[in-house]
Amino acid sequence: MSTVEEAEKGVEMFSRYDLGGRLLTVNKAAPRGSPPQRVFEPSFRIYVGNLPWEVDNGRLEQVFSEHGKVIDARVVYDRETGRSRGFGFVTMASETEVNDAIAALDGQVRALGIV
């Protein structure tokens, strides 16, 4: 970037930008030898384990959206086989929504509609 303002705008625009299913981490570069400056935003990410093999991203998002605004929902797949690894992550819009979703869904396989 040619100015500090452009760099700050780039960080703002592309931090957590979804690129090919992965959220980018974008920070300003620090001069050599100085510690990196990281901008940490609160994350409202939930680990979801023991998922039935049939659950995909859409179903995971659908179930959690009943408990708040879902920013992202991803089932983790094996790179070689393409099969679900049985877990995923859901990012909600707020801490309250995270807590509500956990309270409602923890241990609830039936909520996924695959029993």
UniProtKB/TrEMBL annotation:
Gene Ontology biological process terms, A to Z: chloroplast rRNA processing; innate immune response; mRNA processing; RNA modification
Pfam families linked to this entry: RRM_1 (PF00076)
Family matches, as SMART domains: RRM (SM00360)
Domain RRM: 44-115
Keywords: Chloroplast, mRNA processing, Plastid, Repeat, Ribonucleoprotein, RNA-binding
GO cellular component: chloroplast thylakoid membrane; ribonucleoprotein complex
Subcellular location: Plastid, Chloroplast
Gene Ontology molecular function, alphabetical: mRNA binding; poly(U) RNA binding
InterPro entries, per the entry: Euk_RNA-bind_prot, Nucleotide-bd_a/b_plait_sf, RBD_domain_sf, RRM_dom
4Fe-4S in keyword set: no
Protein name, as recorded: RRM domain-containing protein
